[in-house]
Automatic annotation (TrEMBL):
EC class (word): hydrolase
Start and end residues of each Glycoside hydrolase family 3 N-terminal domain: 61-323
UniProtKB keywords: Glycosidase, Hydrolase
GO MF annotations, alphabetized: hydrolase activity, acting on glycosyl bonds
Upper taxonomic lineage: Bacteria, Bacillati, Actinomycetota, Actinomycetes, Pseudonocardiales
InterPro entries assigned: GH, Glyco_hydro_3_AS, Glyco_hydro_3_N, Glyco_hydro_3_N_sf, NagZ_Beta-hexosaminidase
UniProt name for this protein: Glycoside hydrolase family 3 protein
Length: 467
């Protein structure tokens, strides 16, 4: 392999298809590929063997995964996360608990062969209508998010898993999901410094190993999204003093792929100061090898024409290699919190209005609306499985109301006309709210569980079934 080819591969983090190592990926790893980002489609019963096979191919190979707890998990995608998620931790506001949760997640990651958790989300969720952050954030104020950021970073990295503060310099004030289009935030530098940067500063102070960028445009500061902005990434390096690995958010997201394109976006990101380019999830509808080669060829062409310099890529590769060295030397903790910690936390923050106990064979109506792309696709709410575990007669659906007299449970992420219709027809319906509680609370009978994972589903089912 050419010197330029090794320089390029040393800064790439592609996704891949399937639960085994494809031939193209094996060749890329042998050629010096920095690592891979795994998604739900990669995580099957033999995932630890898969991650071991990747690590065995080359010393320093990195495996990254979105492990936030709550709504976003890859390792527990089949059953839902046993960890409560950021919004519940922020609501409880006990930093010792947050650190304990992160430590448990860190141990879970390392046991599965995951080196980098793409967490925590340190965005300040200042926009109530935010379609992609919401319950993934610790809260709506910089101080709250900053103190839980510190604790989360300490917990993850104390367990030997590299933490990743995301999405720099802030995705919490958007009304557009960057998976679907390019968000624009009309904020000046003073607002950014007072509202969005403090949690990132806290992460840097805590020694966070990675920071992941936001595909968000801040027109007052640059005409390029943060991922491709030397000015914004300069704030991270020079103002906040971060010298770890800057990871791009996935360049297959529409904010990049649908505007400049994944290949040119990767070139611009590296030129601006990104160290490791996350290519993305081939399950979104493209060939895994073709997605990798599109970005790789664009970087090689940029080196050839001088758009990218070899010293820039060498510097990025140096940081990635230092991260891999930290992972190899990290002490993996074996002591941890009880396995019930996630449910214990949800029980402490859950809000119950009225009598929410239901009778036999309840029907669950899914009114959660469009999926959050970051959370991934699933057939039904986690609560459906939790109810069936307690009552095999429980059923689920998205539209039809059950016969009068049969217990009805509606799962919602917020207010909607559909919920109003259900409540008009069935005022006895119990509402389980899994969305942003700071925005809205349903009237009785209802349960607000502060997030959307298996821990929340289990607690809601306990309350609904009276056990």
């Amino acid at each position: 392999m050419s010197t330029d080819g090794r320089l390029v591969d040393a800064v790439l983090l592609p996704g891949f298809s399937g639960e085994t190592v494809p031939d193209w990926l094996a060749r890329a790893v042998d050629g010096g590929l920095a690592g891979v980002c795994v998604f739900s489609s990669n995580v099957g019963p033999e995932f630890t063997e898969l991650s071991a096979a990747l690590h065995d191919r080359r010393a320093g190979m990195l495996v990254a995964s979105d492990e936030e707890g709550g709504a976003v998990t890859r390792l527990e995608h089949r059953d839902g996360s046993s960890w409560p998620g950021a919004v519940a931790l922020g609501r409880l506001d006990d930093i010792a608990v947050t650190e304990a949760v992160a430590a448990g997640m860190g141990r879970q990651c390392r046991a599965a062969g995951v080196d980098i958790a793409l967490a925590p989300v340190v965005d300040v969720n200042a926009e109530p209508e935010n379609p992609v952050i919401g319950i993934r954030s610790f809260g709506a104020t910089p101080d709250l998010v900053a103190r839980h950021t510190r604790a989360f970073v300490r917990g993850l990295q104390g367990a030997g898993t590299a933490a990743t503060a995301k999405h720099f310099p802030g995705h919490g004030s958007t009304t557009v999901d960057s998976h679907r289009a390019l968000p624009v935030v009309d904020a000046d530098l003073a607002t950014l410094r007072s509202r969005d940067l403090p949690p990132f500063a806290a992460a840097v102070e805590a020694g966070v190993r990675c920071v992941l960028t936001a595909h968000v445009l801040f027109p007052a500061l640059d005409d390029r999204p943060a991922t491709m902005s030397a000015a914004l990434l300069g704030l991270l390096r020079h103002e906040l003093g971060f010298d770890g690995v800057v990871i791009s958010d996935a360049v297959d997201m529409e904010a990049i792929a649908g505007t400049v394109g994944s290949g040119p976006g990767a070139v611009a990101a590296l030129a601006a100061g990104v160290d490791l380019v996350c290519i993305g999830n081939p399950s979104n509808g493209y060939d895994d090898e073709a997605g990798y080669l599109e970005v790789r060829h664009a970087l090689l062409a940029a080196l050839a024409d001088g758009t990218l310099t070899r010293p820039r890529l060498a510097d990025a590769g140096r940081r990635v290699a230092q991260l891999a060295e930290w992972v190899r030397g990290a002490t993996v903790s074996t002591d941890g919190p009880a396995g019930d910690l996630g449910r214990q936390i949800v029980r402490r923050v859950v809000e119950v209005r009225g009598d929410v106990r239901v009778g036999a064979a309840p029907h669950l109506l899914d009114l959660t609306g469009p999926e959050n792309v970051a959370a991934g696709r699933r057939r039904e709410p986690w609560l459906a499985a939790a109810l069936r575990l307690r009552d095999p007669g429980a059923t689920t659906g998205r539209q039809d109301l059950p016969d009068a007299g049969r217990p009805l449970v509606a799962v919602v992420a917020g207010p909607s006309a559909a919920l109003d219709t259900v409540r008009d027809a069935r005022p006895d319906a119990v509402v389980v709210h899994v969305g942003m509680p700071d925005r809205w609370r349903p009237s009785a009978p209802s349960v607000t569980v502060w997030g959307d994972g298996r821990a929340q589903a289990d607690v809601a089912a306990e309350l609904l079934m009276g056990r």
